[in-house]
TrEMBL record:
InterPro entries: Aldolase_TIM, OxRdtase_FMN_N, YqjM-like. GO terms for molecular function: FMN binding; NADP binding; NADPH dehydrogenase activity. This is NADH:flavin oxidoreductase/NADH oxidase. Keywords: Flavoprotein, FMN, NADP, Oxidoreductase. Pfam families: Oxidored_FMN. CDD domains: OYE_YqiM_FMN. It comes from Actinomyces oris. It comes from the Bacteria. Its cofactor is FMN. Residues 9-345 form the NADH:flavin oxidoreductase/NADH oxidase N-terminal domain.
Length: 368
């Protein structure tokens, strides 16, 4: 391949009137780097995300950022539950924009998986607000593996969390984010409501598929209203629990149409995380789920982002050519190489400034 017009990964991507320079996304990945445990952006966050923007990603999504203190996945996570956290987020947005990428942020609530980073042992009954965790909130009093038994949310509590999502989204817009992504994946609160494996309520928020999708849709509508008409609304979903009785690809495909009607602009498709399961992990293993959702929303202008062990340039390019997704998110490989998009462009034959715009400061390190 010899020109950018031949490379799908380098094609611009337009969402709600905003255009990303290419179709490569940095997905949200927690850095667990808020040492003061106040949810405020640190120098580490600025350097980490700015380097991926400079490295060529078209859209950079900042890690899971909690809408309430007890919704953090660990005490060292970012937050947007307070106006005092906006200034640091604005600094982060400015750094991402300076690198040439659209800036997005994932907002979420950890539900029954809140409280401790994934590498720490979970302490049954720990509700202290320390590194061992705090009171966990969930749709039902069903623990996740070694975590403490969560408190079942009442309807008033559900309403407060919906309001917290909207408030965090407004702060994200105030900070200057182009994209607000709702975290509806990986076994956290929104996913917990969707799945019958974690939601055994008997009220209007449990039981039928329609009822289990009520809370997610309430969050989407509240966030859509909060961010207005100029900000892109994205949602990340686990399309399958990979477990009997859980969320399925077919169910998620149908749900995606409802999300589009509710105002979602982008669908970011992942899987798993809600219960222990035999996940068929392998190169591109989640792309068939993205393709299933893409077929379901065909006819709309809503793009679908695919993710999951996509670690080679040709693999990403082929997924776009085959129509499995409209954009590709690259996570773990981007942790190893901040300049992965520029390297991938070179791997696929791009050789000029117009095709793969390396920062002028790094020209001496590019191809001859």
């Amino acid at each position: 391949m010899s020109s950018s017009s031949a490379l799908r990964i380098l094609e611009p991507m337009t969402m709600r009137g905003l255009t990303a320079r290419n179709r490569l996304w940095l997905p949200p990945m927690c850095m667990y780097s808020v040492e003061a445990q106040d949810g405020v952006v640190t120098d580490w966050h600025v350097v980490h995300y700015a380097s991926r923007a400079v490295g060529g990603f078209g859209t950079v999504i900042v890690e899971a950022t909690a809408v309430t203190p007890e919704g953090r996945l660990s005490p060292n996570d970012l937050g947007l539950w307070s106006d005092e956290q906006v200034a640091g987020q604005r600094r982060l947005v400015e750094a991402i924009h300076a690198g040439g990428a659209l800036a997005g942020i994932q907002i979420g609530h950890g539900g029954r998986k809140s409280g401790t980073p994934p590498w720490r042992p979970k302490v049954e009954g720990a509700r202290t607000g320390t590194l061992e965790g705090w009171e966990l909130l969930a749709p039902s009093a069903i623990p996740f593996t070694q975590h403490a038994v969560p408190t079942e949310l009442d309807e008033a509590g559900i309403g407060r969390i919906v309001e917290a999502f909207a408030a965090a989204a407004r702060r994200a817009v105030e900070a200057g984010y182009d994209v607000v992504e709702i975290h509806g994946a990986h076994g956290y609160l929104i996913h917990e409501f969707r799945s019958a494996l974690s939601n055994q309520r008997t009220d209007s928020y449990g039981g039928s598929v329609e009822n289990r999708q009520r809370f997610p849709l309430e969050v989407v509508r509240a966030v859509r209203e909060a961010i207005g008409s100029e900000t892109v609304l994205d949602i990340r979903l686990s399309a399958s629990d990979w477990a009997e009785g859980g969320v399925t690809g077919e169910e998620t495909a149908a749900f995606s149409r409802e999300l589009v009607e509710a105002g979602v602009d982008v669908l970011h498709i992942s899987s798993g995380g809600n219960v222990p399961a035999a996940v068929p992990v392998g190169p591109g293993y989640q792309l068939p789920l993205a393709e299933q959702v893409k077929r379901a929303v065909a006819g709309s202008d809503v793009p679908v982002v695919g993710v999951g062990l996509i670690e080679e340039a040709a693999q990403a390019e082929q997924a776009l050519i085959a129509g499995q997704a409209d954009a590709i998110a690259v996570g773990r490989a981007a942790l190893r190489d901040p300049y992965l998009p520029l390297r991938w462009a070179a791997d696929l034959g791009a050789r000029s400034w117009d095709e793969a715009p390396w920062p002028i400061q790094y020209w001496r390190g590019t191809w001859s």
